[in-house]
Amino acid sequence: MSSRLFSEFLGFQMENPWCVASAPPTATGKLMADAFDAGWGCAIMKTVGPVEEPIINVAPRIQTMKKWNREIAMQNIELITDRRLSVWLDELKTLRKRYPQKMIIGSVMAPGHDMSAWAKLIEEMNKVGCNAVELNLGCPHGMPERDMGAVCSQDADIVYNIVSTAKSVSKVPILTKLTPNVTNIKVMAQAAKKGGTDAITVINTVNGIIGIDIYKRKPHLSVNGYTAIGGISGNAVKPMGLKCVAECRQATGLPISATGGIASWSDGVEYLLMGADQLQVCTEIMIRGFKIVDNLNKGLEKYLDEMGFQTIQEAKGELYKNVTSFDYLLKHSSSEKVQVNEETCTGCNLCVVACENAGYDALKLKEVEDKKRTQGRRKVAEVIVDKCTGCNLCVAVCPVPACMSLYDSQKAFPYQLHASYAENTLG
Q1: Prior bond to 285 cis, omega within 30?
Q2: With 60 as the cut, is the pLDDT of residue 1 above it?
Q3: Residue partners of 250: CB distance under 8 A and separation at least 6
């Protein structure tokens, strides 16, 4: 393993920034060992709850959403671990002995109003040599009905009480895992910081229903025709994850363990650039296995080479500082217009249709000489500059890389309304 990928997190030197999230892939000590053997730098045990809390799952409890034969999202309604705490403690001790160079993180959950239960779980974690403990305040299904999980990080006072209790007992750093299913995650992150958390994990899964079978007329994830709002994960939730990483870094300045939608090395780099310090993966492992870490590492190494970086630390960014208000963007915006590379334009008409039906009507097709043929003409997109507002829709839908791009037109900003916007368009 190349030392270039070494990544420090909470005082521990991981061999790479990749971590197996607390989820089905860490359901047993054997699975965590398999992850370590495959090359993952860290693994977080599947969350354990109070000894007296019965954990019984339903079947089925997992479903995916696919586009172009690729899973882009997953819904699960699986609960925390149904294994005994005593079994977990034995396995964690064994893992600690076998893998001294790997980062092992415990994961616990208890009712939001029972601080003694949280303290007991932390005391048990103190006995097994974990490098840190993650407080699971994010599970969106099943557990909130028992005063656990996401319900805990939807109340800042509860967040503070849990974190401060854990910190008063724990012998190792504490991560607080927050739910994205809140109005303002900054408030919860600040409460966790006030309670003394050492880092924040975002995001837990997003509330949702994966879809409906329109012919069987029932939910895709169905238990005898019924479903429950579950946790949506997978690549589709990465935008929410990036948003929460930015907001939590802005609100606290604390280290961030990022999770949510990481399906490739480049997804991980996006999180690193936004300000994350550790990269947790779950859904992609569930679909493609632990060996994906090989490609994650190779991709990271190639990226470092391409960018001229020697280490992961050099590659990290602080783009969370660039996440600002709309008002700031308005005051600092330039007068962007679109330009078309006629040599690469295929005349597919996608941009024209999009622009027309979005209300801008700033594109049309025109005929030009086809230079690749001795005789003949072909169609390409043309920008009606006075109508173009620089919205970027055409650039986003264009199927040809770099065919359409924005440039500063040096025109007045804000853009001027088209004539049709200033008159009765219905006559």
Answers
A1: no
A2: no
A3: 186, 320, 321, 323
CA 207/CA 183 separation, integer angstroms: 13
For each of the domains in the chain, give its residue range(s) and CATH number, in order of start.
3-322 (3.20.20.70), 331-422 (3.30.70.20)
Structure tokens at 42: 């860290």
CA distances from 131 to 121, 172, 277 (A): 15, 6, 16
Q: pLDDT-based confidence at 213, cuts 50/70/90?
A: very high
| Residue whose token pair is 């994906």 | 292
| Whole-prediction pTM | 0.95
pLDDT of residue 425: 76
CA distance 194 to 188: 10
Determine what percent of the chain is predicted with pLDDT higher than 90: 88
Is-contact 148 155, C-beta < 8 A? Answer: no
Asked if 93 and 222 touch (Cβ cutoff 8 Å), the reply is: no
Question: Is it the case that residue 95 has pLDDT exceeding 90?
Answer: yes
- Is 57 within 8 Å of 123 (Cβ atoms)? no
Could you give the CA distance from residue 172 to residue 78 in angstroms, rounded to a whole number?
28
Catalytic residues: 139
Sign, CA torsion 218/80/241/314 = negative
